[in-house]
């Protein structure tokens, strides 16, 4: 497909093919926005269609859109092509170390899949970059699923009543029972042992977790999609740490 982004500009701007001028004119940004909005509209337009098989997410850079394999850029001014270049995806190659390979082989060999709540949390990190509101939703899903699983399996071994607690309504209520079973509020024992930057990071994550439910409620009940910068990413990372804390030492 071909995307055309047109701008009114001066002659000086029209012949300036620099990256800084392109950014000022928002050529690539608007191409990326138009691309994902088109496929979002196609996905919504009719059922069934194969767009549902692919991730349709916003992207400020068209190279980072998961629907794009390769693309070619042409800068045309007054009917003349001043620049033509091919740009591949800017997503770096997956780094696999020997330790990570061994850990993956061990998990597969033991027949233990990655827990659902961990998968949700990792999905939240992905969507935090591409679609922050969806990242918040996935982060909440990860935390709620982890709390329910913890109460229904780990805490259950101490008191059968926790199984009933795992069926409770909402994250706040689940978290109250989890605090009782875990021995204290989120990160309480980690913070006691942490120093300097590590302590600051844990306290920051705790604050993020306290705000997580409120952000989700604004998304779900008020349709509020504007989030503070990096809020989704930091929330997803906080959830990953909270899940690790929940199951550590238990």
Q: How would you characterize this protein structure?
A:
This protein has 250 residues and is mostly helical. 59% of the residues lie in helices and 7% in strands. The chain is built from 11 helices and 2 strands. The chain has helices spanning 11-15, 19-25, 27-45, 98-110, 116-130, 132-154, 161-165, 171-182, 188-193, 196-221, 231-247, and strands at residues 70-77, 80-88. It has a two-stranded antiparallel ribbon with strand order 1-2. A hairpin with a 2-residue loop joins β1 (70-77) and β2 (80-88). α5 (116-130) runs antiparallel to α6 (132-154), α5 (116-130) runs antiparallel to α11 (231-247) and α6 packs across α8. The N and C termini lie far apart (54 Å). The mean pLDDT is 87.
SSE blueprint:
Layout: H1 11-15, H2 19-25, H3 27-45, E1 70-77, E2 80-88, H4 98-110, H5 116-130, H6 132-154, H7 161-165, H8 171-182, H9 188-193, H10 196-221, H11 231-247
Antiparallel strand pairs: 1-2
Helix pairs in contact: 5-6, 5-11, 6-8, 6-10, 6-11, 10-11
């Amino acid at each position: 497909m071909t995307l055309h982004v047109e701008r009114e500009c001066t002659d000086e701007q029209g012949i300036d093919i620099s990256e800084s001028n392109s950014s000022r004119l928002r050529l690539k940004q608007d191409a990326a926005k138009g691309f994902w909005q088109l496929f979002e509209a196609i996905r919504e337009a009719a059922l069934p269609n194969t767009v549902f098989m692919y991730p349709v997410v916003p992207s400020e850079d068209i190279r980072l859109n998961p629907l794009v394999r390769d693309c070619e850029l042409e800068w045309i001014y007054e009917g003349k092509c001043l620049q033509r270049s091919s740009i591949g995806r800017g997503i770096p190659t997956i780094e696999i170390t020997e330790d990570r390979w061994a850990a993956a082989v061990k998990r597969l060999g033991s027949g233990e899949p990655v827990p659902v709540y961990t998968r949700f949390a990792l999905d939240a990190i992905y969507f935090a970059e591409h679609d922050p509101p969806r990242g918040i939703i996935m982060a909440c899903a990860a935390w709620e699923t982890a709390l329910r699983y913890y109460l229904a399996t780990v805490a259950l071994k101490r008191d059968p009543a926790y199984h009933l607690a795992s069926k409770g309504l909402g994250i706040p209520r689940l978290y109250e029972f989890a605090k009782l079973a875990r021995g204290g509020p989120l990160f309480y024992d980690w913070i006691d042992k942490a120093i300097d930057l590590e302590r600051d990071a844990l306290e920051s994550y705790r604050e993020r977790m306290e705000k997580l439910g409120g952000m989700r409620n604004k998304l779900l009940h008020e349709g509020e999609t504007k989030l503070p910068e990096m809020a989704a990413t930091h929330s997803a990372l906080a959830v990953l740490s909270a899940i690790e804390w929940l199951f550590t030492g238990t």
